[in-house]
Amino acid sequence: MVRQSNIRRFLKKHRVKKIVDSHTHTYEATLSRGKPVNFHRMPTKTITMTYPRFPISKLKLIESKLYKGFGVKAKRVAFGLPGYFVDVRQQNNYILKQSRADKTILPVALVTPQMSVAEIRSLVKRGFNGFKPYPEFAFKGKPVRSVFDYVTPNIIEVANKTGTPIIVHLSHDVGFARALKEIPELSKRCKRTRIVIAHMGEMFLTETSPKKFFEKLAPLKNVSVSTSMCVDPGTFRIAIRLLGSSRLMYGTDSPFLLLNATVTSMTKAQAKKIKQPKGKTLVEVDRKSYAWTDEKSRLLLSAEERRNIPRVLNRQVDAMYKAVNYLYRRGEISSADIRRMLAGNAERMFGEKK
Description:
The protein is of the alpha/beta class and 354 residues long. The protein has a single domain (4-259, 304-350), classed as TIM Barrel (Alpha-Beta Barrel), CATH 3.20.20.140. The protein has helices at residues 4-13, 56-70, 88-101, 117-126, 153-162, 176-189, 210-217, 233-243, 256-263, 268-272, 295-298, 303-306, 309-329, 335-350, and strands at 18-25, 31-35, 47-51, 73-79, 105-107, 109-111, 131-133, 166-168, 195-197, 223-226, 248-249, 281-286, 289-293. The strands form 5 sheets. It has a 4-stranded parallel beta sheet. A 3-stranded parallel beta sheet has the order 1-4-5. Helix 2 (56-70) packs across helix 13 (309-329), helix 4 packs parallel to helix 5 and helix 8 (233-243) packs across helix 13. The N and C termini lie far apart (41 Å).
């Protein structure tokens, strides 16, 4: 891990005065639901989802432990809680209220397949600067298999008419192989707006390679990528070289880089009742919390790191620092490119519309 002082000097050298996180969650309510669902192909029949209250004040406190040490200010693109059984209206109201009181919050609305054109358009009128559909919102008792199950015609219509960007979460159930075939069509349908593919770091969990994925995205000029959860400098380098600095934006997925471990897991007693899935190993992903996983998924984040959000944030910044510093020294990118990826792209896309 590179010392924080080195990154601080690097940011100062390239005149980076702020970092804009393109992918954060914040929510006021404490939610706990137990329903018969198959969450991200987990082998359990019932998952109890418990999300602790995570207000914007807590998010900013966590960020301050990292970004102040870098000598930069922070903004965040923020949206509410994804899940099968959450109150979307409550989540959106909380985000919008906080963004009106704090200009460092760039508000994005959760949108569902059930919303009408009028409902979605009203979100833009109220002040949201982006849409975040989730596959969980399209869940009807079986896994979602297509991006278009949750990025619906109504969402696309309003996005095109208002120029509102869509952050697309690629479902594990859809799979990146299927998404590779559907994203070009999504890009074509969203020709008057922009798409941001979330979770560059989850390339580790897929059946495709980062290089193959970015090569497929390269011709799609209205498609950008958030670096959220990426802790590998090599993936950063591939993305920058194939997509360019104007289509990448720094993101973390805070605080879900911690919470995902407990949401998609079970107790050891529950796991023992289930036949071991082929090619999977039972591992402890958090205290007394287990999940079936494989070697590739372990490359993402360790259990210890999941319990320490500032450390995970630091690891993501560290990976990006190593990649951009390497490319800068080789003359492949400029200081302006670095500022765009760390702040400019996200702020321009999700900032307050004039």
